Structure formats: C-alpha cells, structure tokens
Recover the amino acids of this structure.
C-alpha cells in the first residue's frame, strides 16, 4: 500500500541554520506530495505541495522537489527562524486510494533556538 | 473567509459512552474528511464525505461513523468509547475531492476517554 517515511526527530538547530527533513514515499502511480506544519495546539496547515515529478513546491522560504527516481520529497530551508519551531508532516494522496485520503508520515519535530 | 471550525474543542468522556463531534467546512467547500491523531499511531484517515455521501473509509471499527448534511457540515460519532479512542480528531475541507484542491484543516477536537 501507499506509505510515507520521514526522518525521526527532534531536529534541533540554531537560528539561521540550514534545514533538511527527509521524506521518502511508496505509492502506486503518480501521487501528489505535500508538506504540512502543525504548531502547538493547532491543526495542520499546508506548507507546500507538488503534483507531478520534478515539480518544486515552495512557500515561506521552504522548498521541496518531487523526485520520482528516488521517490523522495525532502523539505529544505536555507535559514530557519525560532518561529519555524513546529512539527512537520510529509504526506501523499493518490488516485487509487481516493484523493482526499492523505497518507501521513510520522512527523518530525523541529526545535530552533536563538 | 472563516476557516474550518470544529466543536467542541475539548471533550472528556468515560469508557462506554458515546460522543458526537461536529465540523463546519469553509463556505463553499463540499468535501469533508476526518482524521485521528494519536502519539502512537500518528495521523490516520477516518472517512471522507462529498455531497452527503461517504466516498472513502479508513481502517477503523464500526463504532466510528459519520455523516454529512446538505449544508456540507459533518458530524462523526464514536460509540462505546474505549481508552484508546483518546486522540485529537481533525476535520479537513476542500472544494472538491481531487488531488489538486488543498485540504484546509480545523483546530481539532481533543477527546479524552477516562
């Protein structure tokens, strides 16, 4: 079945450091890929998405490129801020399981210190 | 535009009771999905509704049920509560059930079963 694997956390960084959170997926066909962020006490917010191979999603300085050859969708940011501290979820949706069914990774907690 | 609203935000119940959670999607959105978030299992898909019809269901026992009304508002019900049902229940809405449409999440209802 479809699945998402992302790196274990927490990831601890100092402000202005470079961030990479790895995400790989297993899916039939051509899934859409997403990164969601969850701040304490809140629901999920869509951070970025990519719907086909080689697409790059970007938002608020975060980027991720849909790599079909490596089945990956790694999240990167050049310079993190304290306000980026949150839990980040990689997710996919696929036509064969119904597009609205998002399959999530386990989440990676990011802690940024001043 | 108002976001997805979920009521109540917090709920405490005892084993064996039943509970109903409510979700009001963004105005104009007709697709509503529900997810359960727990520390152990992460984010898991419960079900999806579009135009008052359940289109997809996750791997949960029959104690979990839901429905959607003609105004797109949705409710989910859990009967005969178990301790393991303690979780954050998230609702998400989108315009249509396609992979191209972003799903917007509500803040969730935190259910505690004692």
């Amino acid at each position: 079945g479809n699945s998402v694997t992302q790196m274990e956390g927490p990831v601890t960084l100092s402000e202005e450091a470079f961030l990479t959170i790895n995400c790989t997926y297993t899916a039939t066909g051509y899934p859409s890929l997403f990164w969601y962020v969850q701040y304490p006490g809140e629901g999920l917010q869509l951070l970025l998405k990519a719907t086909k191979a080689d697409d790059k999603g970007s938002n608020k300085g975060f980027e991720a490129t849909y790599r079909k050859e490596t089945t990956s969708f790694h999240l990167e940011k050049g310079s993190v801020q304290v306000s980026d501290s949150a839990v980040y979820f990689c997710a996919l949706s696929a036509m064969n399981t119904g597009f609205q069914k998002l399959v999530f990774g386990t989440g990676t907690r990011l802690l940024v210190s001043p | 535009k108002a976001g997805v609203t979920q009521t109540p935000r917090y709920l405490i119940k005892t084993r064996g009771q039943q509970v109903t959670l409510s979700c009001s999607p963004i105005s104009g959105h007709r697709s509503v999905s529900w997810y359960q978030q727990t520390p152990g299992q992460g984010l898991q898909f419960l079900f999806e509704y579009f135009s008052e019809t359940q289109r997809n269901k996750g791997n949960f026992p029959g104690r979990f049920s839901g429905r959607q009304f003609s105004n797109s508002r949705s409710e989910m019900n859990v009967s005969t509560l178990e301790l393991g049902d303690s979780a954050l229940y998230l609702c998400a809405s989108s315009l249509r059930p396609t992979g191209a449409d972003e799903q917007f999440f509500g803040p969730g209802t935190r259910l505690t079963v004692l």
